[in-house]
Write a structure and sequence with these properties.
14-stranded parallel sheet; single chain; 27 strands; 1 helix; flat
Length: 324
């Protein structure tokens, strides 16, 4: 009888880890820990954990198959990991908390037509999405509270494949965003906005976007993100397109394109801005618009069929254009 009961229990455990599984651990105390592994298709995993600054809410999810879904919600000092292998998977992580309580989220997806969303609120946030495949979408949103100068915001997106989309949105000062795409026909967008009520207004923000391939598009926007903020974009391929918009003070921006049919534009509004655009190839079009004081614009294009436009309004502006 005892052996029959053990065999039945083992069969139930194996069945729950196969096709069309559902796992939903829910914890409401500090120091939570959850681990879920699912193999098959159509799996669903939902986790809801609530902790505080004194305890770590830790979650790890592994899914192997197609059409899987992982949804994790954490509060307090949190750390979440989602790994999905297959096509048509959906990964969502939401982390909330106040002050400088550390929050870390990472999503790793291998396959096509996957979706990764990470949403963080509070301070001391770190997020990363790594996708390899085609037709994938990665979106990361970070919003910091007025939590002092020790709060950290960092978001990184890595995509390898074609027809992928990557979006990062950050609301805070002193934020760092980086997106790297390797492939063709990809789209990357970074938006950084400073919170005027935050005590971190003097902290600089930085944004970087790099694309390797053909037919890629990149957009970068910074609005009131603090002093000494910088932005850099680089594309290496053919018929690429770059745009960047900055409003505020002490901003810097650098755009580099190597290839053909490229278009680059920089718009800056404020004081002490620095803009530089370098394009190497043919049929380039570069524009730089600046308004304010202490602005500097430099554009260099090498090849044939290039066109450059630079407009400056204010005092102490300096512009240099070199076309060959």
């Amino acid at each position: 009888m005892r052996s029959m009961l053990l065999a039945s229990a083992a069969l139930i455990a194996l069945t729950s880890a196969a096709i069309a599984n559902e796992a939903g651990p829910s914890n409401a105390a500090a120091g939570n820990e959850a681990y879920v592994e699912q193999i098959g298709t159509g799996n669903i995993n939902k986790q809801d954990q609530a902790g505080n600054a004194g305890g770590l809410s830790w979650s790890k999810n592994y899914q192997n198959g197609d059409g899987n879904s992982a949804d994790v919600t954490q509060n307090g000092r949190t750390e979440g990991r989602i790994s999905q292998w297959g096509d048509g998977n959906d990964a969502r992580q939401e982390q909330t908390g106040t002050g400088n309580v550390r929050k870390s989220a990472k999503t790793e997806q291998r396959g096509d037509d996957n979706r990764g969303l990470q949403d963080q609120h509070g301070g001391g946030m770190s997020a990363k999405i790594d996708q390899r495949g085609a037709e994938n979408v990665a979106e990361q949103r970070q919003t910091a509270s007025n939590s002092g100068n020790h709060a950290r915001l960092e978001a990184i997106t890595l995509q390898t494949g074609e027809h992928n989309d990557a979006y990062i949105t950050q609301v805070s000062y002193g934020a760092f965003a980086k997106q790297d795409q390797l492939g063709s026909d990809n789209t990357a967008s970074i938006g950084q906005t400073g919170d005027t009520s935050s005590s971190r207004q003097g902290n600089p923000s930085r944004a970087e976007q790099t694309q390797y391939g053909t037919g890629n598009e990149a957009l970068l926007t910074q609005h009131s993100v603090g002093a000494r903020s910088t932005a850099e974009q680089g594309q290496y391929g053919n018929f690429n397109e770059l745009e960047a918009v900055q409003t505020g003070t002490s901003n810097e921006l650098t755009q580099i394109q190597v290839g053909n049919y490229n278009f680059a534009m920089i718009g800056q509004d404020g004081a002490s801005n620095n803009a530089m655009q370098l394009q190497f190839g043919a049929s380039h079009h570069a524009e730089a618009h600046q308004s304010g004081t202490g602005n500097y614009s430099f554009q260099e294009q090498s090849g044939a069929g290039n066109r450059s436009i630079a407009t400056q309004t204010g005092m102490s502006n300096f512009s240099t254009i070199t076309q060959k």
